Amino acid sequence: MRQSRFIKGLAAKSLIAGIAGLGAVALAGTAAAEDFALGSHVPLTGKLARVGTGMHEGIAVAVALANERYAGRHSFSVETIDDETSPAKAVAAVEKLAADEVVAFTGGYGSNIIGPASEAAAKADKVYITSGGVAPGLTERGMTGFFRINNSAGYGKAMVGLFDEMGVEKVAILFSNKEATSGMAKYVEKHLEEAGVEVTMHEFDGSTTDFKPIMNNVKLRDRPDAVAMIGYENDYVGILRAGTVLKPDVKAMVGVWSLATSQMNEEFHDLVQNVYGTSLLPYPVEFQGEEAQAFAAKYEELHGQKPDYLGQFGYVQTTLLVDAIVRAFEDDQKIEAGEIAEELRAVEADTLIGDVVFDEKGDNPSFSHRMGQHRGDRVEIVWPKKAQTAEMNFPAVPW
Amino acid sequence: MRAAPRTPLVLAVLLLAYVAVPLAFGGQDYVMSLIIAALTIGGIAVAWALLGNLGGLVSFGHAAFFGVGAYVSALLTLDAGWPVLPAMLAGGLGAAVASVATLPALRLRGPYFALAILAYAHIFKILAVEFESVTGGAGGLLSIPGFPTVLGLELGSKVGAYCLILTIVLAWMAVYAAIRGSTWGLALRAMHDSELATRVVGVPSTHLKALMLLVSAFMTGVIGAFNAHQISFLDPDYAFSGEWTVLPIAAAIFGGYRTVWGPVIGALAVYLVDQLVFKELMPSGHQLIFGLLLGAMILWSPQGLLPLISRLGLRSGEGGDKEGKPGARA
Question: Is residue A94 within 8 Å of A30, Cβ to Cβ?
């Protein structure tokens, strides 16, 4: 009985091996099929859980579409570990994934987490690509395997460009004391002052909840034409609530990331009316082009909702990585040390977030964001002109 | 004399820790990372337990000493070019010096002391943010130098870092045991029952508590410095995170903070079981299971894990049955 089972098993294995062999012969004329496992650490719990989940969903879409695009040639999977918004756990996650022999890393959110995690990836000689950290210091470390598709300058360019188009003469900048937000506040201050705009700066701690004292200063002392808010979701809500109470005589309230989103429009509808923030696409999303429509359809299929900008960034960084892996592999059927990084450095791509070209530091100097404005139930793209879906409503504030 | 029966057990534990663990897990960086992280928490837990058990002070602010030690060591290596190991000791000294600022809080007791020292932790964090020219501000410090190679042992490797933190933690346990076994330790424990009575017989209680605070801060500072060089990164949110207070307290209570081994055993059990078992079962929200486990432990065995094992007849050589009665004053 046992012998019979063994023989049956052997026959089955031989049959599978035979089919596999035939398959291999059939594919030998093109390229050997290869399974590529990507590693990803993102905050799925902790204070960055919402943004981490958004990026995670975009990565999943990129992997699903890559499997369709390279069907019959290669397959891709992603092994994800929740870093719980902790630098130490992110490092441990990278080490575990490296030990599991992932080809490269995509993910990471928060400059303070990406910093040590990408250094752990470098120690394992793996490429690390992200869109979750815009701190300038990340690309100043001389790491050859670190890449990011966005940076604070790209957000800054959009904000400064919008103010330029508004023609404002005095701006009050309210900014969180985190590295990314401080860096961007200084960028905006420098470029506005160079353009002859008078700037006042108001730094606040990340734990601040009552912004009325700052807003009172802005209203009574600064008297600016516009307020620039450089922080995160909770900060924007606090600042806008303070504005609603004190009603400063300004012409525009302008923020950056995490503000011109569908979630903010739905959850804080009245509070964000006429407020500006960076946004790649209008809401409701109007995708144009084959790739964008395929991305949106797959996103809805996998996650049951329309994509947001976090998903787009996660998708773009992962797609660039996947394509680089395939190019690195298909020239000689193996991936040598540094080959994926070389392929990424050679990228010149027109993506869902705009042009991507990496410099020698792994940064994307071509990155420039767009500015959206909350208008009723919609988010309209109002800057730059070539991407406009509507003229900006100016002057206008939520109160 | 009392220690003689424990010697074989201690030797077995040392052999297991220094030989068996590296042999078994040396090739698994992830597991070694988790063990190192657990020992890091264990080291703080020992320092916290020393202050709590011998000093009679419940601290909610050990993150302050952790952060100061980490920053002092990182800045000495980055800006002054100090070698890492002396810088770590300087980190401990820095934390001890910083603890001098908290000495006025020794006039307070119970929850008042706990809250005061929590405030100190927050003050140190704000200082780290505001002194941007020195500390790098909110952006923190990246690419902090790692551990050197000493006597052929590459301390920067996982096994090397493990041996280093293990040695530090064992040294702190030895300090804890030595203080506890001394006449000063006797006086300190007597203070638990009646500080007034011990003062009447001539025990300088305030001086002793201050000394325990300095020793505990030094220990925590060295652990903070170790962590900074291990993950090569620091920022105020991370260095002064409440995690460096809450987890060690949970570990010490879970393991039995009135014993020498309890805090470390608690840290290893709490962290490794949470990360290796609960996280696998429940990738998001696994902390819930740990919370339930901790709650159950406090209800069923307030003295902690080691005394529970002792009671169950598996003597660990700690004498936990003599210490830490339920509801005993800290």
Answer: no
pLDDT in tens, A166-182: 999 999 999 998 877 88
Q: With the CA atoms of B298, B302, B304 and B309 taken in that order, what torsion angle do they form, in degrees rounded to the nearest 10?
A: -110
Among partner residues A119, A141, A182, which is closest to B138 by beta-carbon distance? A182
Whether residue A38 is contained in a domain is answered as yes
DSSP label of B139: G
Which residue range forms the structural domain that includes residue A275? 153-285+370-387
Helix (H) or strand (E) holding B34: helix B29-49
H or E element that contains A189: helix A179-194
Would the CB atoms of B138 and A87 count as touching at under 8 Å? no
Measured from the Cβ of residue A350, the count of other Cβ atoms closer than 10 Å reads: 11
A271/A182 Cα distance (integer angstroms) = 25
Judgement on whether residues A180 and A277 belong to the same structural domain of the protein: yes
In sequence order, which residues have a C-beta less than 8 Å from that of residue A56 and are 6 or more positions away? A40, A42, A44, A80, A107, A314
Of A235, A314, A287, A298, nearest to A54 (Cα)?
Answer: A314
Q: Does a cis peptide bond (omega within 30 degrees of 0) precede residue A384? A: yes
Contact A112 B140 (CB under 8 A): yes
CA distance B158 to A386: 53
Same domain, yes or no: A60 and A192:
no
pLDDT tens string A122-176: 989 999 999 998 887 889 888 999 999 998 888 999 999 999 999 999 999 999 9
Query: Which residues of chain B lie closer than 8 angstroms to A56, CB-CB?
Result: none
Q: CA-to-CA distance for B145 and B122, rounded, in angstroms?
A: 26
CATH number of residue A169's parent domain: 3.40.50.2300
pLDDT at A32: 63
Task: Find the chain A residues whose C-beta atoms sit closer than 8 A to any C-beta of B.
Answer: 44-45, 82, 86-88, 91-92, 95-96, 98-99, 111-112, 115-116, 119, 135, 137-138, 141, 177-179, 182-183, 205-206
**A44/B143 CB distance under 8 A:** no
ipTM of the complex: 0.71
Tokens of A224: 């600016």
Question: Is residue A230 located within the same domain as residue A181?
Answer: yes
Q: How many domains does chain A have?
A: 2
Put simply, the answer to whether B30 touches A96 (Cβ < 8 Å) is: yes
More confident: A1 or A353 = A353
Q: How far is A183 from chain B (nearest CA, A)?
A: 9
Contact A315, A281 (CB under 8 A): no
Q: For strands A378-383 and A371-375, give the pairing.
A: antiparallel
Test the B interface: residue of A95, A138, A181, A235 with most B CBs within 10 Å: A95
Residue A54, C-beta contacts closer than 8 angstroms, at least 6 positions apart: A308, A309, A310, A311, A314
Whether the CB-CB separation of A126 and A101 falls below 8 Å is answered with no
In a domain, A396, yes or no: no
The CATH number of B4-322, from 1.10.3470, 1.10.600, 2.40.170, 1.10.287, is: 1.10.3470
- Same domain flag for A263 and A329: no
Buried b (16+ CB within 10 A) or exposed e, B132-149: eeebbbbbbbbbbbbbee
Q: Which chain B residues have a beta carbon less than 8 Å from that of A111?
A: 139
Tell me the average pLDDT across A34-50: 89
Flag if A135 and B139 touch (Cβ within 8 Å).
yes
d(CA A48, CA A378): 25
Helix (H, G, I), strand (E, B) or coil at A330: helix
Over the range B278-303, which residues count as b (16 or more CB within 10 Å of their CB) and which as e?
bbeeeeeebeebbeebbeebeeebbb
Q: Are B76 and B87 spatial neighbours (Cβ–Cβ below 8 Å)?
A: yes
**Burial tier of A44 (Cβ tally within 10 Å: 0-12, 13-18, 19+):** buried
